[in-house]
Amino acid sequence: MGIAARIASLQLGAGRHPLAKPPPPAPRARADPRELIAAVDDDQKTGVPCPTPEELAARGPDYIRLISRPVPSPHAAPPPPPRRLPPKPARLPTPPPEPEPVYYDEEPAASTESCLKCHDFSYVDAHAAQFPRHTVHSLDALAHDLTAPFDSETEKCRALFTWMHHNIAYDCDAFFSGNLRAASAESTLHSGLAVCDGYAGLFVYLAERVGIQAIKVGGHGKGFGYAALAPGSPVPPFQGNHAWNCVLMDGDWRLIDSCWGAGALEGATYTPRFTPSWFTSTPAEFGRRHFPEDPGYQLIAPEDGGPMSWEQYILEPQGPVVFKDFYELNFHPYLIQPAEQYVQGGSWVSFQIFKVCEHMSREEQDNYVYFVNLPDGTRTPLRVGEEGAWGANIYIPSGGGDLSLYYVTSCGGQDAKGFGIADFERANGRKAMSFGGMLRWTVV
Predict the structure, then answer these.
(1) CA distances, 189 to each of 182, 184, 264, 289 (Å)
(2) N or C: which end of the chain has fewer CB within 10 A?
(3) How many CB atoms lie within 10 A of CB 369?
């Protein structure tokens, strides 16, 4: 179509809008519904024949709609009654008042479940004992088998720690000969022997296999052959002689020593002896006998004194001799009074010992009688005080000698656990009693 033709067509349609709607049809007159209903009813009553199509068309659609409705059956059920709504209340009910917030002046007491020292690891330790080294063919499989039953990283690490005690022995020959060689995790598993570096390296390998972060830390340890420096001695230079681990367990970095936890040297002989305190020690406790080459691995919090210097660590005075029963009875090795090995004779001295955790029972029926034995044989029992410590103030006569702390293991041939102080005082010197050693000082 040319331009002129298009213009002409536009002019022809100029009288209407191209998108305008057509006008609506004229409304039809609606019949009165009452008249239609009456007509239909008359037809049905009189039996008038049905109207023809032409008659229906003439009466309109409203008539057709009405005559099409069904005739109700005389046997039909009546329609349901209309639903009645409950009356609308005059006003909405007042909601009950919200409870007042409760404020606590003090924080609730800590749960024993969160205390690492009180935690019952017996089921973990029993599981770890089920995998003797000679049956292990893969370190990866060992790591999985040891840790699979446990959800927490702490329990997984405890299983690794305990397995070391059962399966890796200290290599005395290498240590005393000085023939120390670097060991891999595989070689340690194969030989079943290691020094501290081998223990720490194997722990790192197993922990990493199950997604636990572990670091081998080198430094100085106050272990076999250590003797405290005499007062006034110069500070020696730092020298590393030990290795342990720093491990991330359930969000907290902790220090563990699986070598010292597995056993100890007694003379030239290695004695397997499970010492779980090297798994549960706090950083401050751990730091009394471990000094890392990198001070950042001390992990000692400011409220516990913060990191110590090499001089503070190495010049710490020698404490009393601590026997294994002291640890097995769950007493704290760093809360002993007197804290130093030498006790001044001719003076009153305060003696105190504490459990490793405040949650542990101090009831008489759960403990033994603990007493200080003086050089002259005098026995003075310790009593539980308000602070939770067993203690006594005792006059120490001059003259030197050994001063020891014992506990009563039996009396009259019976187990003395639960034996009271009154029972001890009645039996002392009159009945046969046996004792276990806990601590020893030297009187000067």
Answers:
(1) 14, 9, 20, 27
(2) N
(3) 29
321-322 and 290-292: which strand pairing?
unpaired
pLDDT in tens, 427-440: 998 999 999 999 99
Note the residue count of the chain. Answer: 444
Residue 169 near residue 155 (C-beta atoms within 8 A): no
Helix-helix angle 196-209:139-147, to 10 degrees: 70
Q: Which residues on neighbouring strands pair with residue 405, listed in sequence order?
A: 372, 439
How far, in Å, CA of 424 to CA of 370, rounded? 10
- Opening angle at CA 214, ends 209 and 220, nearest 5: 140
Q: CB under 8 Å to 379, separation ≥6 — which residues?
A: 371, 372, 373, 428
Which region holds residue 35: left if phi is over 0, alpha if psi is between -120 and 50, else beta?
alpha
Q: Token pair for residue 225? A: 């052959």
The pLDDT of residue 182 is 87
Segment among 127-141, 195-209, 300-314 with least mean pLDDT: 300-314
β-strands 347-353, 390-396 pairing: antiparallel
List, in sequence order, every beta strand (DSSP E) within 211-354. Answer: 214-221, 242-249, 252-256, 263-266, 269-272, 290-292, 321-322, 342-343, 347-353
Question: What beta strand segments (E) does 325-413 contain?
Answer: 342-343, 347-353, 370-373, 379-381, 383-384, 390-396, 401-411
Cβ atoms of 31 and 62 within 8 Å: the answer is: yes
Strand partners, 406: 371, 437
Per DSSP, 78 falls in state P
CB distance 293 to 328 below 8 Å: no
DSSP secondary structure of 235-258: PPPP---EEEEEEEETTEEEEE-H
Q: Which helix (H) or strand (E) holds 324?
A: helix 324-328
CB atoms within 10 A of CB 256: 25
Instruction: Please say whether the beta carbons of 388 and 358 come within 8 A.
Output: yes
